[in-house]
Design goal:
Order of helices and strands of chain A: HHHHEEEEHEH
CATH superfamily of the largest domain in chain A: Winged helix-like DNA-binding domain superfamily/Winged helix DNA-binding domain
CATH class of the largest domain in chain A: Mainly Alpha
Largest sheet of chain A: 3 strands, mixed
Number of domains of chain A: 2
Largest interface: A-B, 36 and 36 residues
CATH architecture of the largest domain in chain A: Orthogonal Bundle
Number of helices of chain A: 6
Oligomer: homodimer
DNA sequence: TGAAAAGATGTTATAACATAACATCTTCGC
DNA sequence: GCGAAGATGTTATGTTATAACATCTTTTCA
């Protein structure tokens, strides 16, 4: 149900990039980090920390506990491999890690899919709007909820 | 420490608007709703639900419980009197309730003050960016973190 | 190589945020 | 006053997240 034809490819690519980013920055892409990244990438829907936790438990001999998952998620966030969606308390794989980017998210209320987008025009608008108040932007959280194109075509 | 000269005025104005909005829509501006709105408006910093709860307890004979506060906050949100900042799990008084608006928030990382802004240019950029993906915007959450003008002038 | 340091994970407990479900009380229209 | 609707009280629990400290693993480098 994902918009990509072969979702396996997304996952493989994400793992490859995780590996690459860690290698080049001298960090460890440990087993747990890899598994959490893989679980976040299960679909293009946001993954909840406690769901990841459950899914980890299915694989592992000893059930993982919350800090394990949150630590892995934090690591992945710090390295730009996943994003946190604060309006959903959930996490989503980053589609272009490594590249510096201010991004925004389109969250479909119907199918739940999230897509990450970049728009320099939007980034500029944001900067401008902030600048008008003399405000200096450091980071931003832009989460848009609505209907994705497929769900608009096939109304429920 | 608020950017307004007489913050009492902000509070009074907010309460007046609460009253007005309820009156014109046939809803009740009950004591609890009024008190919660007042507490949210204590400052221009975001108010946390459990802090409001504590502050209510100081006034009240019987300590309020979480649902009381969350219900009041939900009511106030539904009526456009407060906004929820999902990146902070907190609430902030709306500076221009009643008027239809897509707004965004400037959150100062230094002093904690939040200001609500509207920018039709930003709204348009957002719509455009979404439209490029065939996405229909229903609601949006735009929370910008950084340094407000005063905190930029007086760097810590 | 092997001991110290750094980094990662395990473990326990609890903090922080939020809501479901049902009981009771208050207000309003008639 | 009485019934309906709306608001609040109450109990319990669900959900999300982190602090603090113990242990294990990897790296470093003498």
């Amino acid at each position: 149900m994902d918009p990509c034809h072969e979702h396996e490819h997304c996952i493989d690519e994400a793992l490859r990039q995780g590996e690459e980013i860690c290698r080049s920055s001298g960090q460890r892409f440990t087993d747990i980090r890899r598994k959490v990244l893989q679980l976040v990438w299960r679909s293009h829907k946001p993954a909840k920390a406690y769901d990841i936790l459950e899914q980890l438990a299915e694989d592992e001999t000893g059930a993982a506990k919350p800090p394990t998952v949150y630590r892995a998620l934090e690591f992945l966030q710090d390295n730009g491999l996943v994003h946190r969606l604060s309006s959903l308390n959930a996490f989503i794989g980053c589609t272009h890690p490594g590249k510096q980017h201010q991004c925004y998210f389109l969250i479909c209320r119907i199918c739940g899919d999230v897509s990450e987008c970049c728009s320099s025009a939007l980034t500029r608008s944001l900067q401008n709007a902030a600048a008008q108040s003399g405000f200096t932007v450091e980071s931003s959280c832009v989460e848009i909820s609505g209907r994705c194109s497929r769900c608009s075509e096939n109304p429920a």
